[in-house]
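2024-03-11 09:14:02 INFO queue: dequeued item MMS19 nucleotide excision repair protein, len=765
2024-03-11 09:14:02 INFO validating residues
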Amino acid sequence: MAADGALLLSLVEEFVSGLQDSKAKDTAAGVRNGQFTVLQLVEALGLSLTSSQPHTRARGVQLLSEVLHECYGNLTEREVEVLIAFYENRLKDHYVITPSVLQGLRALTKCAALPPGSAVSMLRSLFQDVHVQLKGLGADFVFGFVQSMDGERDPRNLLLAFQIAKNIVHRGYDLGKFTEELFEVTSCYFPIDFSPPPNDPHGITKEELIETLRAVLTGTPKFAEFLLPLIIEKLDSDVQSAKLDSLQTLTACVSQYEHKDLAEFLEGLWTSLRREVFQTSSERIESAGLAAVTALTSCLSRSVLNSDSEDSLSTFLDLVLKDCKHHLCEPDLKLVWPSAKLLQAACSASSRASHATTAAVMPSLIEQYSSRTQAMFFVIETLTSVILVQNKIPDQHLPLLSSLLCSEPMDEGDNRAASGQPSHHAMRQRCLSALAAVSTRPGVVRESTPVLLEVLGSVHVEVPQIDQLMSQLEELSCTCSHPLSYNSAAKCFSGLVNKRPQGDSLDSLVQTMMKRVCRELDSSSSPVRTQALTLMIWVSKALLLRYHPLSTALTDKLFSLLDDTDLGAAAADGFSLLMSDSSDVLNRGCHADVRIMYRQRFFSENSAKLVQGFNAAPQEKKSNYLKALSNIVNKLPKQVQITELPALLSLLLEALSCPDQGVQLSTLSCLEPVLVDPPPALIQQLEALVSRLLALTSSPTMSVKIASMRCIHAISRFPEHEILPFRARVLRALARPLDDRKRLVRSEAVQARGEWFLVGSPGGR
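2024-03-11 09:14:37 INFO prediction written
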């Protein structure tokens, strides 16, 4: 056996370094004759595959692929599984290695022992990691894709096909005359109707299919002429999920469109949207319909007019006003509130829309607001929308605000006060809230102060000091340039948010803060993005600790920032703050509202988002997702780690290759307890795991070296037949740290190497 091993190493050396191509056939003959196995060949290639020279690594992979081309017929399913994982990993290497990897994968596809699901896995890796110039094929490539996808029913293949179609659309491929064909072959699955079977091993969800298909259909204005009639048709469905999907797809697509894409469909779209708000029995459908009206109006508001163009916004608003305005003057009818909501949705879309809408409806409402509670409340709601959208108080409405705020409460015996409509006090408070929401802006303060002064003299209005404090803390958090000051302000603000009573007051406070923070974060030129991120992370933690539903919106925003060029790393660090105990605020010693198992709940609700984000992220941003994952998992209780880590194993293996040494160390500390009783998923990834751990034994950081060797030590206790192929490689790698200048490193290396010497030895473990 020793002679065979020496022969194999000699063949590898002569092929890789001596450039003797004929040695590939000699190696293949040795595999066929049983002198050595394919996995022993992989082990013998170890030094070649870790060379710093891409061409040396390429020769090593080429040798393996040529041998497989001759010997694929005798491979076991386990060997095929290991080789597929090896090749998929090599696809991430230098581009000169790719041709040999493709040759090897091609050979593996001919194996009779191809494991279930491996074909999908290989295709996903190819599309994700192989970068080829398909655009040059133009419309021919699109036509070929349409033909290959037509009639597909397997959800695994559909998800992959949708992802490819998304890339075709978003990367600007020339669709040519096959635009409609590409739309038809994908839109025939809209809306998605899929229920995964129980215990589905593939983990494909209906939501995943919906989101991916939506990204295809809404990805280009070229689909507008086909998609908009389809949405109108699907909104006639009696299936609630189909309606909801159609409305959300409409909202998504109009953000990509121009007014000319919508012009011929405006009447049909409005008819469908009006029906969903007027006649719906579902709050979700109504909310989605109103959101679509706002998005549609916003799109039309972006149109640039010239002397011969039609004003599509005016056309659409005329339709809205024609169907809604007259209902506002009939307050006893059931359509007054749906009409009011539709007008507010249109009004809030843009300054142009708010001017046109208020000019049309306010005069008649002002005439009747003093005698009709319903009209009065709608006046206040509309004024609020106008003030927030236009960022100012329109001059013509200043007297109305003053009059309403200073007016006497209605007679308690008045039938209108008992009609179930909002009280006079509630409406007055709504006006004050509208003013307060915009009065932090200098231009608005000049307009609002006279009105407020005329009120703080005719009526008694209590303004709790806590509200003033919260406002000042938020301002300091978002504008101060001194790190200690804005960090401290953010902590104080979050502590107060955590203890604020549940209800509309808290929701309004958080939502107002969210709008401001998101505005700063979404502006790449903002000088206070770091301050906004700091405040958002602390408020996310304050809400997460108490299970507040608005925490999801904030943490979702934090996830999205992992792709940000400037803030991605800081956002990843933010997850450590979310999951860690805080010593000076937001802890039980400060009487914070801290629910049990909030870390586990956060992990279970967000781990899938992290995996999806990592898979979709460009290569240069993946390290941020790995850092975030490491920060989250490292703070989970050990028992939870042992239970949950197998599902995240592929990402954790990637994290071991992350250049951030903090990520490496925290990932190693997560893996170590799992290695004591390894799950099957980990055994299947042994090749990748061992390779990464051995690489870390040469880390410049002592703690990383020690942790990696402890993990290698733990692997020595795995079933002997699983780890025996790695013995020689591990012993070679552990020889180097025996001479390390740090005693603790040398000690750990001695212990680990001693255990690996016993693997496969007579009288061993």
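2024-03-11 09:14:37 INFO annotate: Residues 326 and 336 are 9 Å apart (CA to CA).
2024-03-11 09:14:38 INFO item closed
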